[in-house]
């Protein structure tokens, strides 16, 4: 019997609780800290910024109580936070940090360096806008960094935060790409819900220790990192990166399936709900708005839901596979909790790119920016718009 089979055959710890798990009520930020512990992170850097601070505070508490074997270092800025992670990753440590808003924007330069040095770093971003000054839920901070080369996942629940961080280390260390795990401020970061925490042995069965590669410091074989690269080699580096990025979507689906085999919770690049030949409208969502949309579409048999979990690189193949089930007159309604100074939001932009040349009518909706609530009534108003009229605007603002 393999280790995986042995774990799968264990008895549940209680009614309704997955095998080898403990049910705990916790906030999304605490789930992120627990995920770092379960991932056996060895080096953490920190700089406080609302609303991510409690992630780092919880990690510090776990370390102080002897429940988390890691070194945590307080830095003087987020730029230094990510620079220190870069150095620690280069010497083989499994590293972690969390940030938000202006903190993430301040680290912009180092994000590029980490990605193109192919360092397997995982960071958690609690999404909030930067200016006008605001600390509530918004995805403009992380989406503004979509071209730095980081993989980005957006989480719907605290359970998904914990599970996605574990999966992110698996993907990051296999492909040599950094991963950003994003959760909505306050709606997820500071809201308590049930979370099933796996035993450490279960996590270890899924995520082995970080393996040694040629892309890190080796005192027996000295090498330089981050030096000047001439045009001929620069092209080569980027082509290798491009080749790897094309693997992210398939690896996300494969790792999510493997995770489901061990933990009983399957994940993929996207999730389709009620999408079939009779579906006439599809809400395209990310993060916590998805939960509200799930409730609303129960009252609308002809409305489906497409949840985008992997946002960067955008999962074009998975989206197209889902839409193979619907007819050409199906309407796609993209809900964006971000405004990036353009005509349409980022989800709308990416869906347009993915569906170029396809016959679907695509509409965009701005909703929930800066933490504005998106209750079921708002989703109902989105569905009541007349998308069939030729005079209907392509993009709408919904309060």
Task: Explain what you see.
With 399 residues, this protein is an alpha/beta fold. The chain folds into two domains: 3-263, Thiamin diphosphate (ThDP)-binding fold, Pyr/PP domains (Rossmann fold), CATH 3.40.50; 270-397, Rossmann fold (3-Layer(aba) Sandwich). It contains 15 helices and 17 strands. It has helices at residues 3-8, 28-38, 53-64, 78-90, 101-106, 108-116, 140-143, 158-175, 200-206, 231-245, 248-263, 289-297, 316-323, 346-354, 376-384; strands spanning 12-14, 17-19, 21-27, 43-46, 71-74, 95-99, 122-127, 151-154, 179-184, 192-198, 270-273, 281-285, 303-308, 310-312, 331-336, 361-366, 395-397. The strands form four sheets. The protein has a seven-stranded mixed β-sheet with strand order 5-4-6-7-9-8-14, sandwiched between helices. It has a six-stranded mixed β-sheet with strand order 11-13-12-15-16-17, with helices on both faces. The termini are far apart. Residues 1-14 have low confidence and may be disordered.
